[in-house]
Input
Amino acid sequence: MIKKMFDSAGSSHMYVVLVAAAVCVYSFVGCVRYGVAEPLDSFSSPELGAQRGSEITVTAGTTWFAKGDYENFVLTGQAFTKPDAEAVLLFHSDGESGYEVKFRNGAIDGTQKSGSLVAVRNLYRSLAEDSKWFNFEIAVRGHNISVLIENTEVVCYTEPESPYRTAEYSNRLLSHGSVALRGVQGEVMFRNMQMTRLKGDVRNENDTMPAADEQNNAMIRLQQRNFPVIDYHIHLKGGLTKEMAHAMSMNYGINYGVAPNAGEGGVGRMLADDKEVYEYYEEVKDMPFLCGVQGEGRKWTSTFSQEALGVFDYLFTDAMTIVDHKGRLSRIYRPEEVYYDGITKEQYMDHLVDQTVKIFTNEPADIYVNPTYLPDDMNADYAKYWTDERINRVLDVLVQYDIALEINARYKIPSFDIIRKAKERGIKFTFGTNNADADFGRLEYSLEAVEKCGLTADDMWFPSMSVRRSRPVVIYNKW
Output
């Protein structure tokens, strides 16, 4: 047919028309190349004008818009944060709408860290460091958003059909739009950004868990209040692997703190000496968790050095193992190890409180976990045994040594009454589960305590508040 057109009169004119049409189609459709990485190097700023190049510096109060409109994509690049600097990368944006990814590093201090999908999946530990270039990747595939920092996926969020958004964040929704860089404070630099457009049917193979029902989900509400949701007390045991914990954390929107036991007598991963401590830390330091350790038993302060345990973000212990009134090491969570031997339960309770005060006076822990735990045959009378006098003795030692109080979701302790008393004393709180296996909840009791006890983000503890490294080691038990 084409040959016939060239053979007929006016064939040259027809050829020009066809070529022009093809150029037009290519301009509107063909120029959109899928699966090809192209430099993102043309920016304009309402404040500073236009800029081209592979590196751009973002300062407080400025916004740079990249050229182009994007829907499904993979954006890669490198970022460099100066100390205390912060910026956000917006996508599917017109400057106001769309999602934001945070770029901020530094200590675990309650501020959102690099990789946070702001107000939807807030992160509190960064895998990157200030004053060093680090890699990032942000991808949108259908309804799924993923963020990688230093090649580790830290966000895998699927926007549900009915996302929950407060009025402030009502425009945090997937659509299409610009990519923009906005400075919040200090200087953050970006370089070597590459944009790869993806077709509409693309899917994230790592998106294997169902989207959350955000209309009936407490977690997303706290995220949008910028209330830190961190479970500091997760153990890799009972079938829970690092990989499972990673997937669950991203899906639930809970930052996990994963901790082994350092000492003897516990359940799960046990570290026996400084060498094992350092080896374990090398295993987990690049994983997207807070890195904790639990002092287990009552001999750990003489077994491990402060320097070795100091590599972890935080250290916690409990009073579930005590030296009983006859000098026996007793794990009170095991009924067969709880001996009264002629004393009353009231006297046993006094001794348990004495032991709790002694433990936290002499052991340099950051957090009192499984707090106010009682043996099974006493727990039914929890309020009877935890009198105001006994409560105050324990709270006094927490205040004296700046120790945080865990709100434990598994055992539902301490009581709301004790939490309120601790809040009045200015004691900080953490959330923790102390899971027995891979099938555990989502901090339900801890989140209920937030509402029932009026807790705010200012009531929460973070590793930057730790004073344990300045406390002397006291060998107070004679073994």
Observations:
- Residues 11-30 form the longest helix (20 residues).
- Residues 1-30 have pLDDT under 50 and may be disordered.
- Residues 1-31 form one domain.
